[in-house]
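Input/output pair, single chain:
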Amino acid sequence: MPIPTPFHERTSRLCTSLFWKDWGGFHAVRSYDTCHEREYMALRHAAGLIDVSPLFKYEVRGKDAARFLSRIMVKDVAQMKPGRVTYLCWCDDHGKVLDDGTVSRLDDEHFRVTAAEPSLSWLTRHAERYHLTVEDSTERLGALALQGPRSREILATVCDVDLTRLRYFRVRRGRVAGIDVWISRTGYTGDLGYEIWVDAGEALRVWDALIDAGRPHRLEPVGLDALDVARVEAGYVMNGVDYYSAHHCLVESRKSTPHEIGLGWAVQLDREPFIGRDALLDELQRGPAWRFVGLVYDWDEYEALFDAHGLPPQVHSGAWRDSVPVYDNEGRQVGQATSGAWSPTLKKNLALASVRAPWAATGNRLRIEVTVEFERRQVAATVARPPFFDPARKRAL
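Output:
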């Protein structure tokens, strides 16, 4: 049975829809109202406050912490300076992805790892030869994502950190409403945003301070349904949806390498050995079999499929996660779209997909399966390189 997050006392009162889901063993709001559109619009035009406490969080401390994380991650974490955050993934010995997440270097010997699924056993299994400790801080810490174009103005009114100097993917210790927190310039919406990490016992005071500060800016509490639309627009891959952890795959064909899920840029091969390095070097020689791409539906063709039945075009009200086949123009299946959404901001029907490498070139025309009046049809879709939505404010000072 799911347990409450440190913010549940506030989120449960606001969730009039009673739409909840189990996220990592915690109660998580899907949408506060019966439709998530207001929350989505807040993310893109004002600001949204998201309870992301269910993220798995691990504190790695000790003189060998940097060397240890460099050994088990695809990036050379030891090269990070304190105050930096990086996004990466970690693999098994065969170069297959186990999970993706972030690593923050809070000081010389203290790192925080976030993960989509439980990773304590994997971390501790590899930590035996190192002088360090690994703490599961998932329940000890609450986490909030304050996201959207007005997020900086809101946070600046209640914190003592100079946000004009907090660059993209940086983290600083600070105080919000007098409470000790860590503030990182990170998020999962593809927009300007911050994440605030606070001891669970002080979590409600931080929530209240942000909500009060956000009222003049039209801040809205935001659930996972709106977040899912935003992350599709941002082209962010999701464990268990766009790829599967190698821990859980019963067949080899379900496993993926970092290059196959769009995370090849995070792999640093020219350094000391790390878990999966030899397999990834071999893959680099032959080339990855799959590529992670974006797809943009041909709207005129999509509309015509519905018009043939006397219907207006219909799109999902939120993001979808039911995989559908992708074909080439000769009718051969060359991949699958794993998630997608209608983008209210871009006015485009979008999908994220894994396609075989020869068909993954940007601008290539493929076909994606669409069901209209119980008939499985196909519509043209153009291969695009994610992100679809990438505002300059996300990285700007």
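The domain at 8-55+139-222 is CATH 3.30.1360.120 (Gyrase A; domain 2). Residues 325 and 336 are 4 Å apart (CA to CA).
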